[in-house]
Write a structure and sequence with these properties.
The chain is mainly beta. Helix content is 4%, strand content 58%. The protein has one domain: Porin.
Length: 203
């Protein structure tokens, strides 16, 4: 995925403390979610453009190694499916909910594995199809009310500002694998989550 290298270089220039897991500490992140459906098959004449969504997540540290993380991501996702040499491309708005565990390898780098469930928000739209008439296109997972799978995250705390509430900027590389894809369908997606992170104090 094409990401402005100049932005990343500017963020690297700032050095400060990073995340230090402490039992009971809660932190929240919010920011844009740049994603793209990963095409594993060849779809002549079809493309999988990058899309921009929005995400929010909450992390609760359980010990010095990591904690439980829950996330919610709003996206308008493309689904691709083939039947012999013909293909169809559909899109639909979905809400992704993730729940998993984040482990910190260092104070700046962490990995998370999560279970996701995805919920339909609106009617699917056929964007492109080789089938004539269009209504003869095979259904994709865009029609499913709910789908499930695994979500994996490699996160880097790039820049931490000074302050009592520890405001931080992160870059989070993510990959989502669907367990409910239909035959000959591509519905997994990869993403970059650019987020602002801050400790949350309940009292």
């Amino acid at each position: 995925m094409k990401v402005g290298s100049s932005i990343i270089l500017l963020l690297i220039c700032a050095a400060a403390k990073a995340h230090e897991p402490v039992r009971g500490r809660i932190s929240a992140t919010v920011g844009p979610y740049l994603y793209q459906t990963h095409l594993k098959r060849n779809y002549p004449g079809f493309d999988s453009p990058e899309r921009l969504g929005f995400g929010i997540s909450v992390l609760g540290d359980v010990d010095k190694n990591g904690g439980i993380e829950a996330g919610m991501f709003y996206i308008n996702k493309f689904f691709f499916r083939k039947a012999d040499t013909l293909a169809v491309k559909e899109k639909v708005k979905r809400m992704y909910i993730t729940l998993g565990y984040r482990h910190w390898f260092t104070s700046r780098f962490s990995f998370a594995g999560a279970f996701f469930s995805s919920y339909l928000m609106g009617d699917p739209v056929i964007v492109q199809t080789d089938f004539v008439p269009k209504e003869a296109s095979p259904a994709t997972s865009a029609l499913d009310n709910v789908d499930y799978g695994g979500d994996f995250s490699l996160q880097w705390e790039v820049w931490r500002l000074k302050g009592e509430m520890q405001p931080t900027f992160i870059i989070d590389l993510r990959y989502s694998i669907s367990n409910t894809s239909r035959d000959h369908e591509d519905s997994d997606h990869r993403a970059v989550y650019f987020a602002y992170k801050q400790e949350v104090r309940l009292r």
